[in-house]
Design brief:
This protein is an all-beta fold and 100 residues long. It is 0% helix and 49% strand. The protein has strands at residues 3-10, 19-25, 31-33, 58-65, 74-84, 87-98. The chain is elongated, with a radius of gyration of 14 Å. This is MD-2-related lipid-recognition domain-containing protein.
Length: 100
């Protein structure tokens, strides 16, 4: 069973595209691209945030995240970015434990 992740954010640029980037930063600076490890992760941000996006718009992103059973329990900084034509549309990070 997955966990529902909900993000509300305000757009700071006009952009015709949006791409999600999701990483776990482990102790020692080891960087793991979670988008490649999570089955079915959709990097195309325009699928959940219709493009183009416009400066000043408020958007909501929701995603039912399921951690694969083979994932070990790890402590990490989780960093999510939504990247548009002119750089980051959204960037946020949390420190926590990834558990299956």
């Amino acid at each position: 069973m997955g966990k529902l992740l909900i993000l509300d954010f305000k757009i700071d640029q006009y952009s015709t595209k949006a791409t999600w980037d999701l990483h776990a930063i482990l102790a020692g600076g080891i960087d793991i691209d979670l988008s490649k490890l999570i089955p079915g992760f959709d990097k195309d941000g325009c699928h959940d945030t219709p493009c183009p996006v416009k400066t000043g718009e408020t958007k909501k992103f929701s995603y039912n995240l399921t951690i694969p059973e083979t994932t070990p329990t790890i402590e990490a900084d989780i960093k999510a970015r939504l990247i548009g034509d002119s750089g980051d549309i959204f960037c946020g990070s949390v420190h926590g434990h990834i558990v299956k």
